[in-house]
Design a protein that fits this description.
- With about 180 residues, the chain is mostly helical.
- It folds into 2 domains: about 5-65, no CATH class; about 95-180, no CATH class.
- Helices cover about 70% and strands about 0% of the residues.
- Helix 4 packs across helix 5.
- The longest helix has about 30 residues, at about 125-155.
Length: about 180
Amino acid sequence: MDKEDNTGFAQREFDLAWKAFFRGKPKPRDDDEEKKQMEEFAHWYNYTRKQSDTGKTPAEMYKDEYGKEPIPSPNTTGRMINFDWDKSYNEDNYEDEEIMEMKENFDKEVWPRIKQETKEMTKREACFTSFLLGFETMKKITQEEFAEVNEKLGEMTSEEIGEIIEKHYKEKAKNKLKSTNN
């Protein structure tokens, strides 16, 4: 099985496991319950559920290949999945500059379109159209940012990219250490 086939197989295997694990389970009531379910799934997937093609868990496969127990990390290779909550992430943690930029974008691009496209609509239709326009705007911004990052990555050497990734994971580990010490 070549790498591309293996990736597709691993994704299908993950999807089957996801469906099996969550079948019949109630939806989480809150973020804490969702986090607990996700952590339970990751552990079950890595250490309990046997893969259909090998009859081994991803942890057993890792140990066979590398001769040591896997250490959950974003750098772990193979079929191990990593699940980690970014404790520093906060959806509502916008800087004033970001809010001003959003307002400027809304005033220039979104609001004129909303006014134009919702003239003859009911409130419900207008709300839904506004939602769609917001979604389209977010998608456009994300695509532009992705294109910019992709362009920058194309100009970098693999060593420079490796240094950035290493710096990111060191910072993440440092933040994790801080949060466990508090």
